[in-house]
Amino acid sequence: MFNFNTPSTTVNTVFDAVKWFSSSVKKSCLLALSVTSLSFSISAFAHEHQSENAPVAIAIHGGAGTILKSSMTPEKEAAYKATLEQAVKHGYSLLKQGVPGEQAVVETIKILEQSPLFNAGVGAVYTFDGNHELDASIMHGGTKNAGAVAGVTTIKSPIEAALLVMESSPHVMLSGKGAEQYAAENGLEQVDNTMFDTEFRKHALDKAKARMAQASAGYGSQQGNERFGTVGAVVLDKQGNIVAGTSTGGMTAKRYGRIGDSPIIGAGTYADNESCAVSATGHGEFFIRYHVAADICARMKYQGLSLSEAADKVVNDILVEAKGDGGVIAIDSAGNIAMPFNSKGMYRASISTDGDVTVAIYKDAL
Ligand code: ASP
Prior knowledge:
By secondary structure, the chain is of the alpha+beta class. The chain folds into two domains: 6-53; 55-362, (Glycosyl)asparaginase (Glutamine Phosphoribosylpyrophosphate, subunit 1, domain 1, 4-Layer Sandwich), CATH 3.60.20.30. Helices cover 40% and strands 20% of the residues. It has helices at 14-53, 74-96, 101-114, 158-168, 176-185, 199-214, 284-289, 292-303, 307-322, and strands spanning 4-5, 10-11, 57-65, 134-140, 146-152, 173-175, 231-236, 242-248, 269-271, 276-282, 326-332, 337-338, 345-351, 357-362. Strands 6-5-4-8-7-3-13-14 form an eight-stranded mixed beta sheet. Strand 11 and strand 12 (337-338) form a beta hairpin. Helix 2 (74-96) runs antiparallel to helix 3, helix 3 packs antiparallel against helix 4 and helix 8 packs across helix 9. The longest helix is centred in the first third of the chain and has 40 residues, at 14-53. It is globular, with a radius of gyration of 27 Å. The structure holds aspartic acid. Aspartic acid binds next to strand 10 and helix 7.
C-alpha cells in the first residue's frame, strides 16, 4: 500500500511504518541522550580537571604593632615564626585538597587561637576588669554571607562561632550572652573564661593600668602597645571564592563592653569575589571609622586600583594621616596577596598560587 523508501528498508504496511518510525525515534533519542550524557561527562571532567588545577593561595596575620627585633628573644621569634608557618601551611594544604575557603579560614585561625602567643582565644588580652571578651568574624566573597560574634567570654573558638552564625543563623552578628547561648545550643565547645589566661597578658594589663593611673587624660589615654596579636586569614579556594576571617581579644584594659573592628563586617573583615578579601589588625577605633577592609575592596572595584595599590593607599596614606596604626592582609580572586602595615611590625605569613612561602615579622628584615 505504502511504498516509501527508508535508508535501510522498504516499508509496505502501516504497521511496518509505525514500527520503523518508532524505532528511528528511539534511536535518535538514544543518540541524543548519549550525546548529552557524553557532553555532561566531558563538562564534569573539565570542571573537575579545572578545579583540580585551580589556583589556591593564603595569607595570615598574627597582629600588628610596635614589634621590635630589639625587644624579642631569638626563642620567642622562632616560636612565633613556627606557629605562623604551621598555620599557613595547614590552611594551604586544606585549600589544595579542595576544602571550601570558609573551612580553611576557620581551621587556620583555630591554630592561632589555641596558641598562647596571639591575642585571640588562649592568650587573649585582659579587659580592665581582668577577664577576656572575644570578638571574631568571617565573610564569604562569593555569597557575601557573613557571621560575627562580639564580646563573648566562654566560647572556646570565637571564629568557629562566627562561622556558625554565618551558616546557621539568619543574622550577621550576635553578641555577649546571646551569642554564647546560640553557640552552646549548637554544640560549640564552652570553656571557663580563665582558660584564655596567660602570664604575659596579665603583665600587660598591669602595665596598662599603671599607665592609666598616672595619666591625667582619663580613660582614652590608656591605649598602649599591649594589644597586638589579633589573628586573621584570607584565602582563595579551588572553587574560585575568596574568604576572610579575623579573631581577637581586642585591646588591653578595654572596658564598658568595648567592641573593636574585628567583628565588624567592612571594618576588620570583608570579602567580595569581585574585588578582594581583607582581614585587618590595629587600633580598632580607626579601622571602624575608616571602614578599612571594605574601603580597600571598594577602591579596587570602583577606582580600578590593583590589590596592592588599594591596600597601600588605605593603610599607608589614609590611616597614617588619621594616626591609626595597624595593617591588613588582603587577597584578590587571582590569588594576588598584599600585606601592608604602618606599624613597626606585623606577624604575617603567606603561600602564593605558586606555592612560595613567606613568614615575616618586621618591616625591613624578616
Ligand atoms: N583591631 C583589634 C581591636 O581593636 C586589635 C588589634 O588588631 O590589635 O580590637
